[in-house]
Amino acid sequence: MNAMNKTKVPVSMFLVIGIIAISFSSIFVKWSSAPTSVIAMYRLLMTNVLMLPFLWRYAHEISQIHLKEWLRTIASGIGLGLHFLFWMDSLHYTTVASSTAILTLEPIFVMLGAFLLYRQRTSRIALISMAIAIIGAICIGWGDFQFSGEALKGDLLSLLGTVAVAMHMLLGKSIREHVSAFVYSFFVFLFAGGILAVYNIASGASFTEYPAKEWGIFFLLAIVPTVFGHYVFNWLLKYMKATSISMTVLGEPLGASLLAFVLLGETITMLQLMAGCLLLIGVAMFLRSNEEK
């Protein structure tokens, strides 16, 4: 049976919502002039503030969480915090298309991790579909790749962020077998925000000296890509394989590039549009083959 049919809700609809939401992340970061670590910290901690009034409903569940789950949640939070720190900083050195295209390596890292940790195998058709989607995503950012100077630094930062989010995704899959999406998300965001707060204190970054525009951007990042993006993906980990969710995130380069064209004035070519179609075909093929039982 297809894993998407195990729930009474249209999982595909939530996948689309999540992809659109995370596609706005790079746009908001580009609009901000605050330090990357500060943007990421407030993005996460503001999400915690929004979730806090509902936390009491999960008091019993929280009291039942074992030490192993807490340690995994802390590690997952560190992975998410490092992802935001590295990837968001990459946007100061390279283009949206280039940075998000590198994120397409995430499902490869997740697939390898899922095999090593959970002995989860992937079919030949799924591997071919993954290759098609990744080729399409890389083509979207191909014209923006540069192998020297600040652009290279940005690409390397994006790669480090990709490894970190793969670790976060793999840990999240195991935790979500025993912990609800709300509890897992709340504490993952809290630990990730806490790590970034420590980093900001150590680096001497200001916590308060920002204009109203910046606080508005922090809030938008908390609402759109975090609540409607990362929280939705955390919820879906209960019903889908981590590799499949990582594959759907490949839609971000296409969505982000289209938004960057409309909102930031970045160029988009016919090659990128054709590559986007190739990407979507590959993702659809992968989800159909990889989620079949």
From TrEMBL:
Claim: rRNA processing is one of the keywords in the record: no
Chief location bin: membrane
Annotated Pfam families: EamA
Localization per record: Endomembrane system
Signal peptide: none
Keyword terms of this UniProt record: Membrane, Transmembrane, Transmembrane helix
GO cellular component: membrane
Membrane topology of this protein: Multi-pass membrane protein
Keyword Protease appears in the UniProt entry: no
SUPFAM superfamilies: Multidrug resistance efflux transporter EmrE (SSF103481)
Transmembrane portions of the chain: 12-33, 39-58, 70-88, 100-118, 125-145, 151-171, 183-203, 215-233, 245-264, 270-287
Start and end residues of each EamA domain: 13-140, 153-287
Family: Belongs to the EamA transporter family.
PANTHER family associated with the record: EAMA DOMAIN-CONTAINING PROTEIN (PTHR32322:SF2), INNER MEMBRANE TRANSPORTER (PTHR32322)
Name assigned to this protein: DMT family transporter
